[in-house]
Each structure stands twice: as structure tokens, then as C-alpha cells.
Amino acid sequence: MRRFSLGFALLALPAFVLSIMLAGCGNKDTKTSGGGGEKGGSESEMAAQKQDLKVLEPGKGVLKGKITLKGNPDLKALTNVLHEEMKKKDTDYCMKGSDPETTEFTYRVNDKGLLGNVFVWVVPDTGTFFKVDKKQLDELPKTVDTHQPHCAFIPHCLFHFSQYKPDPKKPKEMKPTGQIWVIHNDAEIGHNTNFGGGSKNKGENLTLQAKSERKIENLVPEMKEVAITCNVHPWMKGFMRVVDTPYYALSLSDALDGKNKVDKSDPKFGTYEIQNLPAAKVRVIAWHEACGYLNKGGGQGEEIEIKADKPTEKDFDATAK
């Protein structure tokens, strides 16, 4: 009987060791921080999260650069496809739109190969915390707006800073900034706005009569972009990033609005600039709707040191697909 027990134990030992090894391999934390960089579950990161976070105050740091498109997408062919789609519904009215509304949306690029409509934002590095002060909140526009003047979303891309983290001792706590998203149908025809992101922003499918608007007040930061479409005019597309960081910018283009809208002949086309950054080590993320992440590290962000005495320059390359 003792021989049988000893033999059984020897046979069971490798399986027991293997089960421990498999359990260890499957224990990686893959949670993401809302609208920021994706945080892995390494031991150093887990330890840093348990310690007091280093608070980074808004500063005078500036991050700036340009986005260069590699490859040669056939913009004329893409525009022809768009026009064929536009012939199917409200053609005369839709074709009254400006150039950004009636030419292909995906690659807004100038003759120097600089690419507009790229999202660039900065998140804190592991062990640090961005303090959002009263001045930043007071200066934040109360709304971010999407317009539909004809048959395109203007701006084509936008950021929505909906929530922030108020307390470094409670890094999971979120508080509304007060900013909301407003969708305007400025057109003389009906539209709908069908939007959705990840599990936190499942979205809605809204009908908007001519000259009407809807307010959206429940979006929260998450890493998945919010895609915006119109079922009435299926070629209409737009994108939004909902973030919990005050440090963000779009590379300037003619398909944006306000101060972000520049003609293709403008030397600022395809460039971005983020101001008031703390002079510290941070992580930068750059993303384009067709090219994906442009930075090293993907959603985790690329480590970069922000200088205090002069602008920090960081260019990105995007590859057409």
C-alpha cells in the first residue's frame, strides 16, 4: 500500500508543478486607464500604484511636432468612391458642401506629405499623477461640438475631456469636468448620429431633424475611440477620443473647426502643439483612424521627457494602409 501511495505522489508532482506555472502565466493584469495609456500588470507597476503618486502640477512645458504620411494613397480614387456613395441620397444638397465635406475624409494630407486629423495626447508615467487645477477647468470649453452643415461631420475628429482624477490618493476616483458633447444638425435635411466606443461608451443611434441638436452628457474616458456615423448617409464618418487628461491636440487640418482648421497651404497643417505640460517624464500617444498608433508602445504610450526651458519636439510617421 505504501508503494502505491509513493508512486502516485511521484506521478502527480509534475502535474502539480505545471499547474502552478500556468497559473502564474495567466495572472497578468490587462486593465486600461480611462482615456490614458494602457497600464500593464508588472510587479514594478503594481508596487508603484500602491505607493503615493508623485503629483505633477501644470507647467510651462510645450510638446510640438509634425505628422508625416508615408506611402501614397490614391486620394482621387477615394474621392470618386465617396462621390458614388453621395449619388445615392440627397446628392444635390450634399454636393453643396465645402472641399473637406465632398472629398475623401480619411487622409487629409498636403503637398508636403503632412497629415492632419491625428490625435495626440499625453498621460502620466507610472507612479505619477497629473493635477488638474481650477484654471484649467475654468478655461475648458463647456461644450465640444459636432456639426453637420451638409453631409459630413465637422470637425471630422475631436477630443472630449469629460472627466478627470481629482485626488492622487484615490487614483480610481473620477470627477466630471463639466464639458459635454453637443451634436448639431445644421443642414436643411434630416440626419442621424450613430455613435459608439468600447464597453464604457456603448453609444446611441440618434435621429436629428433639420436644424436640431442633441446634448450628450454621459460619456466617460476610455481607450477605445468613439466612432461616429450617419445611417441616412453612410459615407459620413467622424472620430472622437474621450480622455481624462487635459493635455491633448489634433494635428491641424482643413476638416477641423475653430483654431484647429487650417488650409493645406498653411505651414501649420499637419502639426500639433500641447501646452502647459509639467516638466517631467510623461507618455505620449498618437493615433490616426486608418494608420492606428504612431508611437512606440501603442496604447501604453511612448516615454518622453518634457523640457522646462524650451519646447520638446516629437515628430511621428504614419504609414498609409
Describe it.
The protein has one domain (about 45-320): Sandwich (Immunoglobulin-like), CATH 2.60.40.420. About 20% of the residues lie in helices and about 30% in strands. It has about 325 residues and is α/β, with parallel strands linked by helices. A hairpin with a 7-residue loop joins strand 13 (about 225-230) and strand 14 (about 235-245). The chain contains six helices and 21 strands. Strands 3, 15, 17, 18 and 19 form a five-stranded antiparallel β-sheet that branches. Mean pLDDT is about 90; it is low at about 1-30 and about 40-50.
Main sheet overview = 5 strands, antiparallel
The CATH class name reads Mainly Beta
So, CATH architecture?
A: Sandwich
The percent range for helix content is: 10-25%
What is the straight-line distance between the termini?
A: 69 Å
Domain tally:
1
Mean pLDDT: 89
Shape: globular
| CATH topology term | Immunoglobulin-like
Question: Rg to the nearest angstrom?
Answer: 24 Å
DSSP strand count: 21
CATH superfamily: Cupredoxins -  blue copper proteins
Structural class: alpha/beta
What are the secondary-structure elements, in order, as H or E?
Answer: HHEEHHHEEHEEEEEEEEEEEEEEEEE
**Which consecutive residue ranges, at least 5 long each, have pLDDT under 50?**
1-32, 40-48
What's the helix count?
Answer: 6
Strand content: 25-35%
